[in-house]
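The material for today's practical consists of a large collection of protein records. A record pairs a protein's sequence with a compact description of its fold. Instead of coordinates, the fold is spelled out as a row of discrete tokens. We will come back to this pairing of sequence and fold again and again. Here is such a record, shown just as it appears in the course material.
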Amino acid sequence: MKTIIEPFRIKSVEPVYFTTKEERIQILENAFYNPFLIHADKVLIDLLTDSGTSAMSSNQWAGIMQGDESYAGSSSFFRFEKTIQDITGLPIVIPTHQGRAAEKILFSILGGKEKYFVSNTLFDTTRANIEYSGAAGVDLICEAGKHPSIPAPFKGNLDTVALLKFIAEKGAENIPLCVLTVTNNSGGGQPVSMQNIKEVKAICKTHGIPMFIDACRFAENAFFIKLREDGYADKPIPEIVHEMFSYADGCTMSAKKDAFANIGGFLAMHDEILAQQCRNMLIMTEGFPTYGGLAGRDLEAIAIGLTEVMDEHYLQYRIRSIEYLCNKLIAAGVPVMQPAGGHAIYLDAKEFLSHIPVDEYPGQALVGALYVHGGIRGVEIGSLMFGKYDDHKKLIPAQLELVRLAIPRRVYTQSHIDYVSEVIIEVFQEKEKIKGLTIIEEAPMLRHFTAKLKSIE
């Protein structure tokens, strides 16, 4: 196979800044071992997130100049609306300033005490918005998704047997929504099959439970379906995408992922009554329904990006570049989520740092080691992010202890990725030197964003 090249040319560049290892040791200590507290200009390769960090295209930048900033009835909104309607088939489109704003509105309306939102796996802000409403978020990941080192084609699937059991136990009337996250971010960026989407929809429809798609990475998921699921190899991506959304009652999306935008998101749905409630809250918290907290220029950029992301040359490059890094790590014996996901590499921190117990946060310790060794910033997706405490303040660990290295779209080249692999492999070879961490300060919700930790000597 020939080398898969980047399907774009670089038109503008931004310098990166180099620090020494000694400087990074001090920077990490000053940031209390939390990558969110490190100043961005002290990071060499920033893989903290793929959200809002992508490079926009020349067409998107041109669209920004055409943005209509009218408070009401902006022409940019109507282009934004029509693009989403055409892609998803969902008739009602409500813009928000980003994905978590869409979630806040939706779960504030549908949530409440003694209610349950079921999902394949909920991400951090999604779960937090559910819990803030008084409801509980329940992850029902399939069995294959619980085993990082064992490859399977669709490890992001929701366990339909577990879903039926949960409905029988809690009652459908107490489950206001089922959320399918595609791809499954907390579960290693793994895709959800079309068959699973169909099956989950059938179960939800039988029990009168609406099903929404968390569509942040819908195009990447569609490409995995094309690659791995029978009957889809010859179907174009827009057709696969349209079928995915045809089973949904609605969706939320952060446009900061698969729309390449630096800001933005939306709610889309069929239910006009629910939509009216959402618009009412939107006006109070985000803005008028034809801008929803966004500038007209952002609406233009999102509409263009949503179309660009379905280009198969781009998606082939995107998925292959993640696979390239994953395969290099596997060859070196590094424990990593297999197969490669759509937007990130997920290191299995529990296996990588098997000498560090989960209550000393091996994922966070590994994040710090990668920064010190090579200036790479990642994020822990484990017991710091998702852990809870029991009545005796003992940690209830997360199901997986992962470190996510999210690759921004159209930003880094192969030499950057080769450098990342070299740093990870070198850290793995010296892993016994890495020490665990303890929390010295934390917030009651979403603690991983602001928590302060110290090394355990």
